[in-house]
Amino acid sequence: MFVLQLGLIGLCVALLPLSYVWVKADDNKFRKLVWLTTFLTLDLIMFGGFTRLTDSGLGCPDWPGCYGTSSPFIAHAAITAAHQAMPSGPVSMVKAWIEMLHRYFAMAIGVLIIAQVVIAWTARWKRRPLHVSPWWPTGILLLICVQGAFGAWTVTMKLQPVIVTLHLLLGLALLGALGWLAARQTPIPVHEPAAARWLPAAVFGLALLVVQIALGGWVSTNYAVLACTDFPLCNGQWVPPMNFEHGFHLWRALGMTGDGEVISQDALVAIHWTHRTFAVVVVLYMLWLALKLRRFESLRTPANGVLLLIVIQFLTGLSNIVLQWPLPIAVAHNGGAAILILLLVMLNFRLSSSRPGRALLPARDVVSA
């Protein structure tokens, strides 16, 4: 019964953006829906970072509900008892609400993607041009189902770092897939075939960024942000004592080594130092790539966005160390990484579409205003 209640809550949350798309005066409601879903997915990723950074991931230690109910209101007695038994533990009423709001939001995103699937297949059956295969939103729906499974394992496996990191990466993959679909629905302002030769460089840049975000997720999920408390040195040294074997042993419990012992400070330093060092490579490459790509009119806006976000990421990352990991800056750092993924996806799409014979037609509406 409570699963049905959860579904209804997710549907009710999704009705607001769906209503906005329906009443908005736009010639292409499918495009509007895709862009809105992309924006809300970015918000969901940032809220997921907020959930993790406030230690609310186990605010409701079961899944998909909260102590077998659909709301912390109903589970009030169980939450209060757990908090009284362990006041410094992971369960409190505030943390339970943060966790459940994250789940409600995720379910609403699922409803919006289901709506995309229905529209796309309806357009195929009625032979209305949508300029995108219905298998694309269907694949995105499958991806969010996998993402939901990892969300469940995040809770049931007690925030195991590799599961939480994969949950983050799948969320970014979902954002990238939605961004690609949104770009597919938006005509490119100028077709510049000369830009296509930069596609391999942009693909490589996206790969570098994904690796760096994975390293950042590993830092966050292992709570290694403050393993180095100074900059540019790490604990007063360029190369401090580190334990890479324990730091990068993937299958282990939070705060433990693969052998079941408490993880050492040297292992946490290895995690932090690797992320920090690889960031230098990524920043330099991204700056070079963005400066090259901004010479093309069709790429100038996303390339400028990359330049801006690289600076912001550097400043927020440095502030996390110097200011001892303040919550707003930590959330902003997570959000900046997600926006960078979206910008790199847009750049790769436009470069791919710049190749001869790949000019895109404006997408036409499938749902009348």
TrEMBL record:
InterPro entries for this protein: COX15/CtaA_fam, COX15/CtaA_HemeA_synthase
Membrane topology listed for this record: Multi-pass membrane protein
Keyword Cytoplasm tagged: no
Pathway assigned to this chain's UniProt record: Porphyrin-containing compound metabolism
Compartment list: Membrane
Keywords from the UniProt entry: Cell membrane, Disulfide bond, Heme biosynthesis, Iron, Membrane, Metal-binding, Oxidoreductase, Transmembrane, Transmembrane helix
CC terms in the record's Gene Ontology section: membrane
Membrane-spanning residues: 6-23, 35-53, 104-123, 135-156, 162-183, 195-215, 273-291, 303-323, 329-349
GO molecular function term, any single one: oxidoreductase activity
Name assigned to this protein: Cytochrome oxidase assembly
Extent of the signal sequence: none
One Pfam family of this chain: COX15-CtaA
Entry's Gene Ontology BP terms: heme A biosynthetic process
